[in-house]
């Protein structure tokens, strides 16, 4: 990854994460708020244009849950995803994995 791409990634995370995790974001349905948080980086259907952010579209559901659990436990490290996964229950992980495994846009 070039320095420019790395700076763009860092800037994106520094700008998006506070907005995503902010309690001032008001969406009535907690699942909709969670989905919006995931879609902010991974794209509305799980695909995005950033090489540094994995595409989740049509990814195996069990694999995604396993990866989120590893972020949460610390077995897998990523500055952003570890912080996000810590906030998620197993049910939320399963719900988001189910959504992105279908590759459909809401």
Describe the structure.
- By secondary structure, the protein is an all-alpha fold.
- It has five helices and no strands.
- Helices cover 62% and strands 0% of the residues.
- α3 packs across α4 (79-86) and α3 (61-73) runs antiparallel to α5.
- 20% of the residues are buried.
Query: What Rg, in angstroms, do the CA atoms define?
Result: 13 Å
Q: Proportion of β residues? A: under 5%
Cα end-to-end separation: 31 Å
Number of strands: 0
The helix-strand sequence is HHHHH
**pLDDT averaged residue by residue:** 84
Question: How would you sum up the global shape?
Answer: globular
Q: What kind of sheet is the major sheet?
A: none
Given as residue ranges, the uncertain stretches (5+ residues, pLDDT < 50) are 23-27
Helical content (DSSP H or I, runs of 4+): 55-70%
Multimeric state: single chain
Count of individual helical segments = 5
Label the structural class.
Answer: mainly alpha
